[in-house]
């Protein structure tokens, strides 16, 4: 048997017969002739190779096969009636699978906590983490539905961007390094100790390079890594210094006890992280995702980082 052997209309006819116990009454409800209803039922019996009704009694009764078809037909018809709303109407926020992209510095532990708040809304998730540019390409190719990224996509009209948080860049030094309190100290540090960088193809690496150029600082290139875990491990091993935002510190918090975290003596160097979706495609889901993300950030996300560096708290806007 193939699906074309029956359709929604024939299932609707069968459900009416089953509920009313009469082909005549079913015909009246559906605006059909009694013979048309009888023909549909016989077609179904042929398609399923099973007797569906016991015609020897009145009102008509369902056989065991008829009971099974009545049960599944009801489920199918209920789902079918919901399709217009689910596809483009009031319930368009439903997604059978949500594909989320997240920049590497935020991915853990943010994504696991986020999914706890969304799992009642979405049955299945696919998660991609990586560099900002790579995630942008996947989003534009429609391989991702939602992004958590420091790219606001303000160059595109059909994209909706909601700010999740704004955070400063901070100065990371080996635990026993001397304190740096002003720009002169930062310049002296850059001349004597290697800068542990993020790679220049990453958004973090580009932001840091741009900030150093604004200060007129040309820092020699010694080490560059695409993972902030490795950047912080290098600082912890006294291989150099670095500039990173607090979310990166949360992700690699196992290194915090071996690192000195200080305010950057050149203020105003910050980045924002946004929730990015396509306009009008996910109904109310983008607002729910944004709200769930804000809840994760507000419920102790930076607790360990702020316990060691309480001065950072007013610099993070959520």
From TrEMBL:
Residues 6-63 form the HTH lysR-type domain. It comes from the Bacteria. SUPFAM superfamilies: Periplasmic binding protein-like II, Winged helix' DNA-binding domain. InterPro entries: HTH-type_LysR_regulators (IPR050950), LysR_HTH_N (IPR000847), LysR_subst-bd (IPR005119), WH-like_DNA-bd_sf (IPR036388), WH_DNA-bd_sf (IPR036390). It comes from Azospirillum picis. This is DNA-binding transcriptional LysR family regulator. Keywords: DNA-binding, Transcription, Transcription regulation. It holds the Pfam family HTH_1. PROSITE patterns: HTH_LYSR. Belongs to the LysR transcriptional regulatory family. GO terms for molecular function: DNA binding.
């Amino acid at each position: 048997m193939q699906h074309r052997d029956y359709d929604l209309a024939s299932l609707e006819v069968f459900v009416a017969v089953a509920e009313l116990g009469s082909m005549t009454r079913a015909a009246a409800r559906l605006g059909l002739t009694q013979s048309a209803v009888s023909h549909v039922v016989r077609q179904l019996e042929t398609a399923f190779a099973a007797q569906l009704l016991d015609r020897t009694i009145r009102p008509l009764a369902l056989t065991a096969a008829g009971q099974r078809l009545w049960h599944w037909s009801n489920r199918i018809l209920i789902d079918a009636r919901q399709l217009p709303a689910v596809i483009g109407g009031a319930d368009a926020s439903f997604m059978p699978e949500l594909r989320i992209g997240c920049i590497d510095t935020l991915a853990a532990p943010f994504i696991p906590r986020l999914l706890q708040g969304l799992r009642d809304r979405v049955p299945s998730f696919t998660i991609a983490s990586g560099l900002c540019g790579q995630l942008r390409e996947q989003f534009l190719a429609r391989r991702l539905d939602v992004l958590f990224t420091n790219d606001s996509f303000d160059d595109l009209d059909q994209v909706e961007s909601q700010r999740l948080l704004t955070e400063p860049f901070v100065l990371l030094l080996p635990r026993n390094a001397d304190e740096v309190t002003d720009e002169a100290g930062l310049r002296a540090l850059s001349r004597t100790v290697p800068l542990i960088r993020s790679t220049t193809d990453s958004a973090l690496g580009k932001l840091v390079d741009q900030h150093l150029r604004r200060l007129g600082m040309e820092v020699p290139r010694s080490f560059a890594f695409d993972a902030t875990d490795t950047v912080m491990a290098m600082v912890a091993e006294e291989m150099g210094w670095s500039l990173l935002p607090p979310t990166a510190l949360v992700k690699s918090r196992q290194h915090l006890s071996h690192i000195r975290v200080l305010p950057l003596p050149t203020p105003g160097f910050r980045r924002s992280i946004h929730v990015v979706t396509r306009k009008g495609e996910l109904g109310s889901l983008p607002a729910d995702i944004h709200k769930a993300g804000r809840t994760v950030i507000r419920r102790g996300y930076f607790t360990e980082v702020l316990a060691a560096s309480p001065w950072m708290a007013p610099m993070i806007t959520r």
